[in-house]
Amino acid sequence: MLIAHLTDAHLGLDPGGLVGRIEPAAALRRALAHVRGLGTPADVLLLSGDLTESGADADYQTLRRLFDEELPGHRHHQPRVLAVGGNHDLPLRARQHLADWMPAPDNLPPGLVCVKAEHGGLHFIGLDTVVPGQPHGELGSAQLDWLATTLQSLAGQPVLIFMHHPPMLTGMAAMDDCGLRHGRAELARLIAAHGQVQLVAAGHMHRPILGALGGAPVVVAPSTSHQIELDLNPNAPLAVRLEPPMIGLYRWTPEDGIACHFSHVQAFDGPFPI
Ligand SMILES: [Fe+2]
């Protein structure tokens, strides 16, 4: 199975002084065309939040239109698209527009916009880390209890968890300040207890980052649009860096497990046989 991971498209972002250099819709269109052009078609396409800049209806409509134009098979689950909201989204509104991408589990506590789906023998669980009106994320007790029950019901079966705020500290202090503030230790315990979490995939940091939690790898994919400056000085201010965007490409099989690649959207020359 091949999983393409696109995140932090930020449709509707006003680029201010970077107008003409940050173009979220055009960048997402290029990323989707890149997915379409992969030598091996993606089976699943994960969107890990900040789909839009401010949760506007028009921006979710634009998101759907871009998929219709660039990946016309997605309405027939080619690839299967799965999405969660980020701190810039309004997750309930996102679900109104994107219900087929955000399948709701039956037993979910009210107010949470989690996602659950199975594809190709892998169980996808999308967590809702959004705290309304706040840039940071949390996993509260209701969601952790639901996750514990859900993982118990999937005992022995492989799981991929995806979420907006990554459950790790990155050393990018300004971003860690608005990271996942509650629930990381509890999530680590649940992952360790389950023992079959193949990957935790997240966004929010606008950089490619690897980590681990509870014995599972954590991968943070960069934004399809604009990246955050990599500066590990604890006093570093937030800044944008316009690096070539990448998508995550994760190969998973029951026999081989997970292999995480990053693929540049703007193609370089090649491939050249060697
Ligand atoms: Fe973002």
TrEMBL record:
UniProtKB keywords: Hydrolase, Iron, Metal-binding
Pfam families, sorted: Metallophos
Iron among keywords: yes
Domain of life of the native organism: Bacteria
UniProt record similarity statement: Belongs to the cyclic nucleotide phosphodiesterase class-III family.
PANTHER family: CYCLIC NUCLEOTIDE PHOSPHODIESTERASE CBUA0032-RELATED (PTHR42988:SF2), PHOSPHOHYDROLASE (PTHR42988)
Protein name as it appears in the record: Metallophosphoesterase
